[in-house]
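Journal club side-thread
Mid-discussion, someone asked how the predicted structure for our own chain would compare to the paper's figures. Pasting it here so we can look after the session.
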Amino acid sequence: MRSLKVSGIIHLFAVLHAAVALLCRVAGVHDELVLTLLTIVMIVLICLKRGLNVEFTASCVIVVNVIGYLLGTGGAALIERIVRSPLAVHAVSTFLTTEILGWGIYWFTRFLRRGDASERPATWNPRIGLLLLAVGVIFVLRLAYVELFASPSFSADRLYRMSGLLASNSVALIVLLCVNIIFVRHMRRHAERPVVVKGVLLMVFVLLTTACVALLAGLHLPFGFDRSFSWREFFQLSILTLLVEMTLYSLIFMIDYALVARSVLRVERGRTHQAQFLYMKLKQQVNPHFLFNSLNILDCLVCEQRTEQASAYIRKLAGIYRYMLQNEQETLVRLKEEMDFVGMYVDLLQVRFPDGFRVETDLADEALMRSIVPCSVQLLIENAIKHNAVDAASPLVIRITATAESVTVANDLRPKLPASASSTHVGLNYIRQQYLDLAGRPIVIERTETQYRVTLPLL
C-alpha cells in the first residue's frame, strides 16, 4: 500500500465495497459491518498516506461513517428511480458513496496542507498501535449500535420519538454545540498532556455531556418539566444522544484541526519567505559589485582631494548600511523612511553616473505615513539601473509616484546593448511574496514597449 497513490486506494476500495455489497446480498447476509470495516480501513490508509495524526484519523472515521450511511441511504433512493434491479441499486450506491467519501477526505486534507506539496510516506511507529486501538473501539461501538437498534426496544417509532425530543429542544442542541467547541479548544491548548490522560478526559466529557443533554431534551428543560419521562426512555435517548455527541465532537475537532493546521502552515510559510527576504537583503548589504564600485568612487574622490564630497559620500554610504541593519528584522517601514534611504542611494549612484539618469518623485503627503516593505523601492531603482542603458546624452528617467493607497516606480524601457543576462527576478519575487504573506495583496507589474512599471500597495 505504501507505493499506491491515494486515488488508487479510493478506486480500489470503491470496487471492493461494490463487490462485497453484491456478494452479501446474493448470500442473504447483512453487509453493514463488513462495509463499515472496509470504510474504516480506507480512511486509515488515506490519513496515513497524508501524514495526519491519530486524533484526526479517529474523528474522520466517525464522521465519514455517519455521512456514508446518510449518503448511501439517500443515494440508493435516487438510483432506484433509474435502475430497477435491487442488486444493482445497492452496488452502484455503495460504489458512488465510497468514491465521494474517499475524495472528500482527500480534498479536505489537501485544504489542510495547501502549499505543502510533499506527501509524507506512511511509517510504522509506536503511535500506530494507538491508532489501531482507536479504530477498534470505533468498530466495536458501531457493532454495538447495530445490535441495539436491531433490538425490539429500539423500534422505528421509538427512534423517531427520541430523535424528535432531541431535535426539538434548541437549548439542548446549543449546549451540545458550545460545550464541544469549548472542550476541543481547551484540549488543543493542553496538547502536551499524555495520550492516556486525554483519552480519559474525553471519555468522561462525552458521557457527562450525553447524560446532561439527554436530561434536558427528555424533561423538556428549560421550557417545561415532563414528569412522565422514565429511566428507560432516558437510557434510549442517551444512546441516541451519544451517537450525535460523538459525531458532533468529531466534526468540530476536524474543523478546528483544519483551521489550526492552515494557520500554522501560513505562519511557517511566512517565516520561510521572511527568512528568504532577509537573506536577500543580507546579500545586498555585502553586494561585492556595489561595495567595489563605492570604494572605487571613494578612492577617486580622495585622490582628487575632493574631501568634502568624499566625506559626504562616506556619510551616505554609512547611512545606507545603517538603514539596512536597523530594518533587518522589520517587515514594514514608513514610506518616508524608505524614501530617505532611497535618496541616499540615488545620491551615491549619481556620483557614479553623474548625468546618466534622474529620479522624479511625486508623493502625496498622506502616503508618506503609510507602510511599505523595506528596501522595496530601492530594489526597483536598482533593477532599473541594472537592466537599462544609462547615458548622459539621453538620461534614463525613473518616476516615483505615490497616492494614499500605493506607490509606483516606473522607468523608461531601454534594454542595454548588447543585451545583458536575463533577469532572474529573485528580488521582485521576494517582494511579491512579502506582500502576499503580510497583507494578501499582490503587487502590479506592467510592461509596455516604452515603459516598465511596478505598483506596490501601501499598508
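Post-session note: The beta strands are 333-334, 357-363, 371-372, 396-402, 406-412, 444-447, 451-457.
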